[in-house]
TrEMBL record:
<feature type="domain" description="AB hydrolase-1">
    <location>
        <begin position="25"/>
        <end position="262"/>
    </location>
</feature>
<protein>
    <submittedName>
        <fullName>Alpha/beta hydrolase</fullName>
    </submittedName>
</protein>
<dbReference type="InterPro" id="IPR000073">
    <property type="entry name" value="AB_hydrolase_1"/>
</dbReference>
<dbReference type="Pfam" id="PF12697">
    <property type="entry name" value="Abhydrolase_6"/>
</dbReference>
<dbReference type="GO" id="GO:0016787">
    <property type="term" value="F:hydrolase activity"/>
</dbReference>
<dbReference type="InterPro" id="IPR029058">
    <property type="entry name" value="AB_hydrolase_fold"/>
</dbReference>
<keyword id="KW-0378">Hydrolase</keyword>
Amino acid sequence: MYRTAPGYGKSFHWLEAGWENRETIVLLHGLMAHSMAYRKVVPRLASRYRLIIPDLPAHGRDQTFRSQMLGPRVDGMVGWLEQLLAAIDAERIHLVGHSLGALVTFMAARHRTLLSEVATVTLVSPGIRLGVPRWTHRVVEKLPFRLAKLGASPLGMRAYEPIQWRKSRMTSMEINSYVEPFRDPERLRFMKAIGTDLVREPDRLVGAEQIDHPTLIIWGDKDHFLRLETGKVLQSMIDGSHFEVLEGVGHCPMEDSPHEFSRILDRFIRG
């Protein structure tokens, strides 16, 4: 589904399921992914909830990145999220973010006035503390574009697949679905710029204590991208938050362990 974003003059794109259900879950994916990242949990959750799975700027079929009003910065994606939620027009939203999507969710949740329609927040392997040197952004910024193209190719995806997922492996069709959007060089350049901005400020934990939404944190104990200890710190900073660790699961719990992921999320939302 495409929906015009008034502030950008371009279109959001999202997948939708469970239209007949009253409660809405919005699921945000991570860097270099798109709405397909949640494909394994849709059958489990759509029987109870309306699911909205948008493509982040420059990912999937999103068109908002083509607007001159939206730059490739993580901070700018907070405003993007605010407009997205307004476009969805639901009274009660459960907001779920993974990795980059979780960082954007976290940053928005720190500003209490931005997420007035959000009932709960779920942070899945959030990219809040990256554990990289502060000069990393200079290296990423100078990476030749052809290397970015290689990383966004089927070969590149296969190369880091064992790091990203512990149990799950993608079919060739799924791999092609992931990389197809990045055959557009403008998308890839925008995505690379977001990645550069992401590592420019590798520690964004400041302000976590300001979050007052009911919050669930989900982490895989085999996540090789983001340290499990960060989840423990985050839980200690967000009053009343819940922390769930999935055993044998990597950076993408919704792909590695979709049944357990769905069960935990449903239990949290139902209270």
